[in-house]
Design goal:
Number of domains: 1
Largest sheet: 8 strands, mixed
CATH class: Alpha Beta
Helix content: 25-40%
Shape: globular
CATH architecture: 3-Layer(bba) Sandwich
Radius of gyration: 21 Å
CATH superfamily: FAD/NAD(P)-binding domain
Strand content: 25-35%
Number of helices: 11
Length: 399
């Protein structure tokens, strides 16, 4: 049986960042990270958009607002240090009609409150940045939004963690808990402190430790359609003005690190937690649980789950995706969008007592374990400062 001072469950960007921060703070501690797959970043961290967000969407009193600007700066510096290619192409937020202008003003207010550089543009000025963009009267430009290949970041962090002395155990899945011992599919591990950063299964593990009583993960599938146009055909990320009551940002253009455009992502309700495609990773128990929870949200939820589900399922259609993207830019031709990217699953936390989606990061823990329950977008951007916050939380809880 292995023993350690700290055991981190989950080898995504959050788990890796927490393990590395624990190592920095406690150089003499033994730290084990277990990952059920053969490498880190197999799930959400390696499948996300790769956007380093600037931080102007989020309410100033939120953890997201606190960490996004700093996370953008720190992850940008990390990529530059590791010579990971970044596309510093910025982002335009555009209005489809007069009804969007009030929300655009709210984004400006939040951006200023969060200390984010934003440029207010006329429609003519927006087209100087991106000649194909469509917007009603006005737009916002975020110069500090950029994109990166997320797998390159995860790979670099994995190598750093190994070099720094974190023990990575691959092919090792959490099975259950017996006191201070944790059972895996390989062996038992006795840990002084457990950090649960298991993403799609964070709620399940937390429940074994007496947490996540009112929370459950509700999985949503994200799909992107890739353009076959040459790199640079669209110069910058183009986003619609979001519904600020909704955690999903709507179909938009993302420009990848190598300059290619993709449209998405969807937020299609998934039928089980790792429902990437077909019957891969099929789990009957999860199907019953997730489907039942979705049916329960059709009435009485604090958001319109029925409308969300219908609208998102329609995005399995390429023509529907292209139609939505064509509101944002000129000359968006379905013939140029033939290839679907690798699906990702968003581990969205649901408060089952209030029947609402959690919009911010959520932690629960005590002197023996800490559970990272909600790290949805922009969790990738926030990973470095957020890991410090988690470790501060652990130190406070352990006193």
């Amino acid at each position: 049986m292995a023993t350690c001072d700290f055991l981190v469950i989950g080898g995504g960007v959050i788990g890796l960042s927490i393990a590395r921060e624990l190592r920095r703070r406690q150089p003499n501690a033994s730290i084990i990270l277990i990952e059920k797959e053969s490498s880190c970043g197999t799930h959400a961290s390696g499948r996300n958009s790769g956007v380093l967000h600037a931080g102007f969407y989020y309410s100033p009193d939120s953890l997201k607002a606190k960490f996004t600007r700093l996370g953008n700066e720190q992850l940008t510096a990390y990529c530059e240090e590791k010579r990971i290619p970044l596309n510093k192409c910025g982002k335009l937020v555009v209005a489809k009609d007069a009804g969007d202008l009030k929300s655009l003003d709210e984004l400006i207010r939040r951006g200023h409150a969060n200390g984010i550089e934003l440029h207010e543009l006329t429609d003519i000025e927006a087209r100087k940045i991106e000649p194909r963009v469509k917007t009603y009267q006005r737009a916002l430009f975020s110069p500090h939004t950029s994109t990166v290949n997320p797998l390159h970041v995860v790979d670099a962090m994995q190598q750093d963690a190994i070099r720094e002395g974190v023990q990575l155990h691959f092919g090792t899945a959490y099975v259950g808990r017996e006191g201070r011992q944790l059972r895996t599919n390989q062996d038992r591990i006795e840990a002084g402190y457990v950090v649960n950063a298991a993403g799609l299964y964070a709620d399940k593990i937390a429940m074994d430790y007496g947490f996540s009583e009112k929370y459950r993960i509700l999985p949503f599938k994200g799909l992107y359609l890739y353009s076959n146009e040459p790199p640079g055909s669209i110069r910058t990320n183009i986003y619609p003005v979001p519904d600020l009551k909704n955690p999903f940002l709507g179909i938009h253009f993302t420009i990848t690190a190598d300059g290619k455009a993709k449209i998405g992502p969807t937020a299609i309700p998934a039928f089980w937690r790792e429902n990437y495609g077909g019957f891969s990773n099929f789990n009957m128990g999860e199907l019953i649980e997730v489907a039942g929870r979705g049916l329960g949200l059709l009435t009485g939820a604090q958001f319109d789950y029925r409308r969300l589900a219908v609208e998102e399922i329609s995005k399995y259609s390429r023509s529907k995706m292209v139609s939505l993207a064509s509101v944002l830019a000129e000359n968006v031709d379905e013939r140029n969008y033939q290839k679907w990217g690798r699906p990702g699953i968003r581990a969205q936390l649901l408060d089952i007592t209030k029947r609402k989606l959690e919009m911010d990061f959520v932690l629960e823990g005590d002197g023996h374990s800490m559970h990272v329950l909600n790290t949805v977008s922009p969790g990738f951007t926030c990973s470095l400062p957020f890991s410090r916050y988690v470790c501060d939380y652990i130190e406070q809880a352990a006193r």
